[in-house]
Model the fold of this input.
Amino acid sequence: MWLVVGLGNPGARYSRTRHNAGFLVVERFAAEQGLDFREKDDYRICAGPIDGERIGIIEPLTFMNRSGSAVTKVIDKYHIPPERIIVIHDDLDIPTGRLKIRRKGSSGGHKGVESIIQSIGSRDFIRVKIGIGRDDTVPVESYVLSKFRRDELPLIRDAVAQAAESIGAIIAGGIDKAMNRYN
Done:
């Protein structure tokens, strides 16, 4: 079984903000697969077969800094190893609208990724990073919780579509092929 985790913050206040790029991607991916989310405990989940593989998709509802607790509940229940977890999240250090797929690594300062690393005790999960850029005139905390500017929307729409597509590519063809195609 694969687990796809979209990172973001719950609630209308955070909808469509930069920090919710992970939610945008998994919601698109689930819709393309004909899957519907349901709320359970402190996450939203949907599941189904994709390319002959069983897959679960979650959105932690614990706020970004505590995402790991929801992820841990799911991986413990279904016995999912870290290398079969794909975490989708925003990244300040990547230009807006660009993608970067990584096999494993550090949190890079991302609080949601750090929470997952601490909770599951491993850095060996796949990351699909969505570039949200950076604005040095705005404090980071305010910037990540801001909505995309009108001129950024086409870039983000394309990035969300590519990131959703990359999930299927990772599952069907492996991470190396997906990295070659999307990085």
